Amino acid sequence: MASGKTTLFEKVWNAHVVTEEGAAPAILYIDLHLIHEVTSPQAFTGLRERGLKVRRPERTVATMDHSTPTLPKHLATVDPQAVAQLDKLEANCAEFGVTLYSLASEKQGIVHVIGPELGITQPGMTIVCGDSHTSTHGAFGALAFGIGTSEVEHVLASQCLLQRKPKTLEVRVEGELSPGVTAKDIILGLIARIGVGGATGHVIEYTGSAIRALDMEARMTVCNMSIEAGARAGMIAPDEKTLAFLEGRELAPHGAAWDAAVARWKTFTTDEGATFDQTVAIDAATLEPMITYGTHPGMGMPISGRIPAPGSLSDPAQRAALEKALKYMNLEADAAILGQKVDVVFVGSCTNSRMSDLRLAAGVLKGKTIAKGVRMLVVPGSKQIKKQAEAEGLDRIFVDAGAEWREAGCSMCIAMNGDMLKPGQYAVSTSNRNFEGRQGPGGRTFLASPLTAAASALRGHVADARTV
Amino acid sequence: MNAFTSLDSRIVSLPTDDIDTDQIVPARFLKVTSKKGLGDALFADWRTARGDEFPLSRPEAKGAQVLLAGANFGCGSSREHAPWALVDFGFRAIVAKSFADIFRGNAIKNGLLPIAVDDATHARLLALRTADANVTVQVDLASQTLTLPDGSTATFPIDAFSKHCLLNGVDELGYLLSFEANIAAHERRAP
Ligand code: SF4
């Protein structure tokens, strides 16, 4: 900025530029590289073929989450291909000296859940992972983004990436959320408004009183889905809540190192008067619980609304996309979504599988039973969350209500592990993608908050938790 | 990486907006540990659902190296399996109104050229292709030119570094590693 005022993003970016020469992209240093079984095997193969080592194994952390079973039966009985991939990760980590939180570890879980949980996700860091929802870690004021497998190899070998500087988009959310409206509704509301490509080429910084009021878990939910608006990353400046969350975590700094880190972390904020390339303002008070009706996360609406009609859209490509989506979903234009039948309810994923999410869902279900014919899966984001939820008795609430309480993992968010919809089934899901077949070939997904998911499980159709 | 200079090819037309990488390669095909052979997984669910009518399954798709898509192609998951599958199937270039960020980067690293064109060019190409399934386009990377079947031309953007890498088959990791001294210096000064 000519004014010398910089944004949070620019501060983190500037602190990590190794060099920036001529027309070439910048070389950006990466502080933390998270890896999992699905997008890393080919990268390790690449290293081996070139005779390279992992440059900084201590900056690399691996876990198993995408294709792991969520029933405590032996892995080998699930899927030989998935087992081979998990074995490969184990062998690669052993060979290259990378710490792995495997299925046997008490700290295993969804990669974007365990980073913050362990305290390795910290303000001002650059964090990457071969997974688009790496944006989750931006809730701590880190610049965190998803990369492809070639880039996983680049980071393993050089601890750096070639990057073009993205533009900045401020999403300012002011005011107070109404009761029953959550972080998930903020982000679904944003994506419905700006579209799935609305933030392409940009890093979002979420600001405003409604964002400040969110706890860290809710902030993670917001940043998590930044990618669904096409953003490179989503960030929230660290504050007292960020520090309180990290203090005392196993892998966060301790003692004098903590004090030094805090002093540094506090510098990672947007200067008064710094400018963004674009700004979007949202009035929190006007938000309602949101739900998607179509086949991408931008096809979302307030839960009390009516499904839009293709005829109401002027752009022919958008009209065709909506027609195709409604056909896939087998939904009628202009119909209400409340009351739409539901076969499966999924509470989980890196978007909504943390303690506060489970507490919200349990609060709706407590002492009640889910509707006959509905299958409900509750999948905690990590083993540590599972343990804590059980200590609080949440597992009993779920099981007594008729839901299945599972082991930690990605599960039905991506349906790689056998947890999946049958063709034609409808699910209310707290995950982040409602793409065709995402939760199983032919499956149909409504994305919503844990409150809406639990209320819909009770009713057997899409229901508003505020009136259940 | 395969170098890219120019090509002259028929077109597979799939002009839907917001085609996500879950459609390009459904998740169940991600359990592989190699990059090869993913062409069979390309658009697997759409291919099954639409049978012989699906654009990739039609006779004129055989040997085609150019895919014509809509806006925001490759959104969603960061899976590089998407460009691996497209390349394995035989594609070398995608013409679209726009691309998702991660997909664009992944494509270039695999010698697959993302060609973003304006709405008018897109509409013209789509009309020509719809009128005749066997028309061809020419792509010339050095001049950043797309020549439509009617002889009209459009230029497309690409940053100078990516262009250099694609034209010469330069591999980015080799380039990165040549900065070892700078990387080490950064590590010494960073906290
Ligand atoms: S929970 Fe879903 S979105 Fe999150 S990392 Fe796993 S598969 Fe990806």
Which descriptors apply to this entry?
heterodimer; A: 468 residues; alpha/beta; 5-stranded parallel beta sheet; 16% strand; globular; B: 191 residues; Aconitase, domain 4; 7-stranded mixed beta sheet; 8 helices; 35% helix; binds iron/sulfur cluster
Task: Summarize the SSE layout with pairings.
The complex is a heterodimer of chains A (468) and B (191).
Chain A lengths: L7 H9 E3 L6 E4 L2 E4 L5 H10 L9 E4 L16 H17 L2 E3 L9 H8 L7 E4 L13 E4 L2 H10 L1 E4 L3 E8 L8 H12 L7 E6 L1 H4 L3 H9 L8 E3 L4 H7 L8 H11 L12 E6 L6 E3 L7 E3 L13 H14 L14 E4 L7 H11 L9 E4 L4 H9 L2 H8 L2 E2 L20 E4 L14 E4 L2 H10 L9
Parallel strand pairs in A: 3-4, 3-6, 4-5, 6-7, 9-10, 9-12, 10-11, 15-16, 15-18, 16-17, 18-19
Antiparallel strand pairs in A: 1-2, 2-8, 13-14
Helix pairs in contact in A: 2-5, 6-8, 12-14, 12-15
Chain B lengths: L5 E8 L7 H4 L19 H7 L15 E3 L12 H9 L3 E4 L4 H9 L3 E4 L2 H13 L4 E5 L4 E3 L5 E3 L4 H9 L3 H6 L2 H10 L2
Parallel strand pairs in B: 1-2, 2-3, 3-4
Antiparallel strand pairs in B: 1-5, 5-6, 6-7
The complex binds iron/sulfur cluster (SF4).
